[in-house]
Every structure is written in C-alpha cells, then in structure tokens.
Design a protein that fits this description.
mainly alpha, two-stranded antiparallel sheet, 4 helices, globular
C-alpha cells in the first residue's frame, strides 16, 4: 500500500482551475493586507486596470492605489 501511495503523487496535483482560484485568493489577500511584494508578484507587468468610470491605471498606479491609506 505504501508503494502505491508513493508512486501516485500526481493524484493530488492541483488542476489548472484550482491554480487560478488559488492565485486569485493570493492576490485578493495581498490587496486587503496591502502586501506590496505579493501584489507585484501576482500582477503581470503589462496589466492595466480599468475602472467603471473609464479611468485607466498602469500596474504601478494600481499597486499604489491598493497601498494607499483607506478613507
């Protein structure tokens, strides 16, 4: 039985969907906790953030906005 368990590590690998969900949670937690290093790690260098009022932000501007003190 132990040989069988050791020989099948792929059975516990995350699916692509699970990996995406985990990345979203990591980004969300970083935004809430104002974790600059994780925000930089999880946001693509070429990302732009578009607000509902048509305001566009670069990655750097979006990270700065996440890190700004809350009102």
């Amino acid at each position: 039985v132990m040989t069988l368990m050791l020989g099948l590590p792929g059975l516990w690998a995350a699916t692509p969907e699970e990996e995406v969900k985990a990345a979203i949670e990591q980004w969300k937690t970083a935004a809430i906790q104002k974790d600059k290093a994780t925000l930089e790690k999880t946001m693509h260098p070429a990302v732009t953030y578009s607000h509902s009022n048509a305001k566009m932000e670069t990655r750097e501007e979006a990270i700065a906005a996440f890190l700004a003190p809350s009102m």
